[in-house]
Amino acid sequence: MNPLPPVITSKKEMATWSESKRSLGLTVGFVPTMGALHQGHLALVELAARKSDIVVVSIFVNPAQFGPSEDYESYPRTLTTDLEALASHSVAVVFAPNAAEMYEDRLTTIHVSGITEPLCGASRPGHFDGVTTVVAKLLNIVRPHLAVFGEKDYQQLATVRKMVKDLDMDCLIVGAPTVREPDGLAMSSRNTYLSPLERAQAPVIRRALLQAQELAGTNTPEQVERMTRETITRGGGRVDYCSCLNALTLSAVTDFSSPVVLATTVFFGKTRLIDNIVINEKT
Ligand code: PAF
């Protein structure tokens, strides 16, 4: 078995380590995670490894992005198995700080407006402020040349891209395609919460999104949203939102003449799953 990657828990030590690699002329790729790693995360690591000389993975369950009634306390924390999973990948170091190390005395929050307002921004108030604040801090500590984020979290990726552009942060943000189970369910750390029945029902999300792509040829965004909701509801899911938005700006659309993201969040029992599809994506 490959040795486990070394773990750094201190911000200062992480920054010094990165600086020493950068000064050797090595490019640093970064994959921020909250742990409970699955094949989707490992695909992000592989992409980062293809695009840079060395890869840093962070594992930090970020309290700032969970609402008071959300699953921060019960979120799976599996550091040992995560390190084992990373051992067979080219990971130079894992940054795993605790909450006190990350947030002691913090008075600053980063807020990206506009694109954070619909979708998850509307149903999880404050969530994206927590994400952008921690991602900005992680980028400042790890100082990567590039950072990889999954396209499953479409709004998160768009928000991080906007923050990096607006704040002139010197880091390339790379999106990675969603990795799916054989039945189409997007991989997520929260899939482990699903009961056997819910797990059997959940692939309806992907089926409904693929159906929506077909329907977009002859229907308005509003009609496509309605039919997608109906399909998911019939399949046992409780739809939180299901919206067609401009794929770049996340503003409202009335037709499919430009790329549109159809993004949805669906509850199966208490488990909240997200997924999306881009319609008319320019290749
Ligand atoms: O996508 C995630 O796992 C988290 O939102 C991130 C980017 C690691 C920030 O905590």
Write the layout of secondary structure elements.
Blueprint: E1 7-8, H1 11-23, E2 28-33, H2 39-51, E3 54-59, H3 79-87, E4 93-95, H4 99-103, H5 119-123, H6 127-142, E5 146-150, H7 154-166, E6 172-176, H8 196-201, H9 204-215, H10 221-234, E7 238-246, E8 260-268, E9 271-279
Parallel strand pairs: 1-4, 2-3, 2-5, 3-4, 5-6
Antiparallel strand pairs: 7-8, 8-9
Bound molecules: pantoate.
Pantoate is lined by residues 32-34, 62, 65, 131, 134-135, 153, 156.
Structure write-up:
This protein has 283 residues and is an alpha/beta fold. It has two domains: 7-176, Rossmann fold (3-Layer(aba) Sandwich); 189-278, Pantoate-beta-alanine ligase, C-terminal domain (Pantoate--beta-alanine Ligase, Chain: A,domain 2), CATH 3.30.1300.10. Helix content is 37%, strand content 19%. The protein contains ten helices and nine strands. The chain has helices at residues 11-23, 39-51, 79-87, 99-103, 119-123, 127-142, 154-166, 196-201, 204-215, 221-234, and strands at 7-8, 28-33, 54-59, 93-95, 146-150, 172-176, 238-246, 260-268, 271-279. It has a six-stranded parallel sheet with strand order 1-4-3-2-5-6, sandwiched between helices. The protein has a three-stranded antiparallel sheet with strand order 7-8-9. The longest helix is centred in the middle third of the chain and has 16 residues, at 127-142. The radius of gyration is 19 Å and the shape is globular. The termini are far apart. The relative contact order is 0.13. The mean pLDDT is 97. The site of pantoate has 10 residues, from strand 2 and helix 6.
